[in-house]
């Protein structure tokens, strides 16, 4: 049986790049790059539908078995997607065992239906995954988990609304096309000079919509001529089940002087204000100014952008830096890709004509304000919620799945690795942890540099039953018992670059205190 790792969205990956066939038993090592324990769904590509997954202790794990698709209607032969829900230690490694056998009690099959919208496309029958074909329908449909319900248009396959905590919120998506000026300066690599408001994207044929439903995740894949969108809803308690995973695979290589955008329209009364982050560190409020040209109202979005009113907040988390704007109340608009045929005389010397199929990944998080915090803060600062911080971390620090190559003779048995013996507070982030050079290069160093960031967050958003595996501690953090099997000898605060000590090394006190939004560096010595 061969194995390879699979991205969360299932698009933009070469499904045929599996490792060569090996013996029936294979090991996969999972690495969690976050400093908090996480519960996640991990997907792997295997070469047989007869697969059984065991934990390190030999306990059978439930799996969701799905097809791997090469197009809207064609499955990849002899490649299957296996999804496992697993709990991973903070900054640790976990081991899975995969066997080529079938267990009907733990293997849960996904159900698939195709909405062809009148298009005559061949759909080959598959013995493992029966596909229900719906030739023509305009009925809307919904996916749900224990936290929310997401409803989609039966015609377009795009998101229409979200229901959370018994309240329905309009949250619709649509694709747009920007052109460029016909005279004077035109859009290029550095300049965005549209020829007016964006026009709705109008494909030649209606989309093919594929709906996959299963116990661990359900998703809606909409195949248009130039873009494929996958909206996935995880059925997981905790952070991953509280937001929608959105992937857009864009291919505009046959366009001329066009730019594709994704618009989110909601019922949030945001008026002319929205918020973007500055390099993922702090949040900056922005205002739409009608007196300025349209292009002057777009801003960089390195990690997130959100709109809010007195009742709720919608956050768009992104895995890649893009341009964003809010041109009308309740809307967010993000540029997905650009194809421009001319140079804009700003130094590049050519147009943007080297486009590739580009995958953009997002998380949509809808939050409700608590009854005690109905009035929107009028100060010129804003912060994400703690859930929003965690969602961004899950999006940008995915679980890494590493199939283990078989060797002869067999290597020693693999074991899980838990480097932390204590839980890191939810609002602390380890920016860096590295060894310092020892005086004797032939010996390992006993000193390390630890750079910490305490995040600032908004307490006015609902935070009940979020399923966190960590808590906040009012800025206090005990480093003495943090690392498993290591005794902390001394702790010395230093400047950010470790050049200057900011206090004497303390062998007794290993508890630090940091204010919100503070970044601090410590030199630690293990005794």
From TrEMBL:
Domain of life: Eukaryota
Residues in Glycosyl hydrolase family 38 C-terminal domain copies: 143-346
UniProt record, GO biological process: mannose metabolic process; N-glycan processing
Gene Ontology MF terms: alpha-mannosidase activity; carbohydrate binding
InterPro entries to which the protein is assigned, alphabetical: Gal_mutarotase_sf_dom (IPR011013), Glyco_hydro_38_C (IPR011682), Glyco_hydro_b (IPR013780), Glycosyl_Hydrlase_38 (IPR050843)
Gene Ontology CC: Golgi membrane
Protein name as annotated: Mannosidase alpha class 2A member 2
Organism the protein comes from: Terrapene triunguis
């Amino acid at each position: 049986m061969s194995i390879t790792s699979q991205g969360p969205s299932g698009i933009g990956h070469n499904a045929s790049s599996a490792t060569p066939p090996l013996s029936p038993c294979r090991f996969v090592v999972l690495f969690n790059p976050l400093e908090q324990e996480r519960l996640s769904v991990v997907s792997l590509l295997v070469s047989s539908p007869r697969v059984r997954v065991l934990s390190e202790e030999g306990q059978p794990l439930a799996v969701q078995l799905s097809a791997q698709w090469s197009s809207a209607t064609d499955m990849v032969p002899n490649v299957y997607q296996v999804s496992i829900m697993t709990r991973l230690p903070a900054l640790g490694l976990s081991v899975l065992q995969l066997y080529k056998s079938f267990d009907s009690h733990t293997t849960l099959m996904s159900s698939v239906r195709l909405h062809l919208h009148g298009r005559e496309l061949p759909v080959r029958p598959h013995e493992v995954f029966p596909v229900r074909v719906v030739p023509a329908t305009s009925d809307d449909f919904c996916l749900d988990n224990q936290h929310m319900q997401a409803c989609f248009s039966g015609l377009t396959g795009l998101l229409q609304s979200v229901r959370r905590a018994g309240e329905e919120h309009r949250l619709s998506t649509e694709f747009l096309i920007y052109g460029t000026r016909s005279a004077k300066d035109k859009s290029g690599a550095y300049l965005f000079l549209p020829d007016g408001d964006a026009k709705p994207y109008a494909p030649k044929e209606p989309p093919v919509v594929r709906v996959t439903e299963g116990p661990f995740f359900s998703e809606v894949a909409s195949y248009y001529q130039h873009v494929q969108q996958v909206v996935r809803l995880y059925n997981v308690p905790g952070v991953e089940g509280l937001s929608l995973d959105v992937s857009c695979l864009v291919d505009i290589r046959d366009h001329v002087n066009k730019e594709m955008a994704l618009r989110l329209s909601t019922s949030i009364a945001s008026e002319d204000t929205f918020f973007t982050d500055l390099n993922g560190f702090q949040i900056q409020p922005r205002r739409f100014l009608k007196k300025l040209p349209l292009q002057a109202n777009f801003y960089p979005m390195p990690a997130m952008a959100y709109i809010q009113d007195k009742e709720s907040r919608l956050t768009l988390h992104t895995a890649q830096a893009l341009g964003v704007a809010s041109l009308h109340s309740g809307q967010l608009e993000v540029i997905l890709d650009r194809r421009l045929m001319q140079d804009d005389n700003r130094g590049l010397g050519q147009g943007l004509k080297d486009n590739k199929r580009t995958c953009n990944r997002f998380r949509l998080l809808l939050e409700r304000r608590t009854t005690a915090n109905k009035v929107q803060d009028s100060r010129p600062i804003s912060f994400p919620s703690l859930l929003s911080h965690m969602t961004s971390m899950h999006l940008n620090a995915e679980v890494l799945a590493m199939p283990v190559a078989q060797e002869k003779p067999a290597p020693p048995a693999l074991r899980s690795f838990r480097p932390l013996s204590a839980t890191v507070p939810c609002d602390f982030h380890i920016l860096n942890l590295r060894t310092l050079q020892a005086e004797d290069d032939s010996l390992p160093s006993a000193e390390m540099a630890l750079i910490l960031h305490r995040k600032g967050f908004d307490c006015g958003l609902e935070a009940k039953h979020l399923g966190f595996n960590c808590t906040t501690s009012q800025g206090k953090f005990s480093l003495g018992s943090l690392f498993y099997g290591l005794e902390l000898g001394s702790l010395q605060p230093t400047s950010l670059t470790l050049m200057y000590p900011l206090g004497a090394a303390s062998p007794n006190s290993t508890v630090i205190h940091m204010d919100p939004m503070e970044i601090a560096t410590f030199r630690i010595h293990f005794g």
